Amino acid sequence: MIREHEDIVIQTVCRFFIPFMQAYGLYVLAHGHGSPGGGFQGGCILAASFILMTISYDLKEVKRRFSEKLNVLFCSLGVFIYAGTGLVCLLLGGNFLNYGKLSKILPTDPVMARYYGMAAIETGVQITVMAIMVSIFLNLVTAGKHEETVEEEDAGDNSK
């Protein structure tokens, strides 16, 4: 994705728009377990903000802000939050993801424990979906050769 020239209008609009997309993705997460939305939708919105950044700038800029190692860390972290919440419920004598059992370790009643458990699950889902969607997009764009593509862009920048 080497660009001959940069479009300042597109970059300026995206620089303004991307933070609002990310804030909206977090809003969808925060209100998702009580209204339409949630982790999957919020994760897709956050991933779309990184995809928009790739389209408006270049792959090197996205790699600078969201490296492949960080992406793998987010994939793992999201799954860990989801599975960890279910495992804690199992250890407390309930079924997997029986959030009411979390009231044994949280200073609240079972109803609010369910609310907090759903919030934890949705957060794990959002992190995982965002990281996986970005990873899928980057694999499609680079044909699975992330590092070689970035190195080629760096070599192209140095030759100018």
How would you characterize the overall build of this protein?
This protein is mostly helical. Helix 1 runs antiparallel to helix 2 and helix 2 packs across helix 3. The two termini are 16 Å apart.
DSSP summary: helix tally: 6
What's the number of extended β-strand segments? 0
Order of helices and strands: HHHHHH
Number of individual domains: 1
* Overall geometry: elongated
Give the key terms.
mainly alpha; 160 residues; 0% strand
In short:
The chain has 160 residues and is an all-alpha fold.
Write the layout of secondary structure elements.
Elements: H1 8-32, H2 39-56, H3 59-65, H4 68-91, H5 110-142, H6 146-158
